[in-house]
Amino acid sequence: MYKLIILIETPEDSVEFERRWPEFLAAAEQMPGLLMEATSRVDRVLHGDVHAQMIHELFFDSLKLAAEALGSTEGQAAGQVLQEITGGKVSLFLADQTQDQLSNIRRHRVPRGDNPPGD
User: Which pTM was predicted?
Assistant: First the structure.
């Protein structure tokens, strides 16, 4: 699965940003191939010099579908709204996402005190 990660810096006019955020969501949700989306509001930065207010993720089945969605009329319209409401204070990333269930992760955990094979 591929996702477009949108890192949104703190906007200069947060009231206007919040007022127009649903406009961006409505536009982005029209993108072809979109499977799901997730929004995370950043309430603190634990390390680093990042001034992010929000992370928004758009999920697609493949890199090809993500690229097609971004290049589509709907993707371009969503991007334009995003640029307007953020004043360009935004970073975009494409990422290949993998997930694993905690139960599977625990099956492969090395017990404390034991060394993995080959050590």
Answer: 0.81
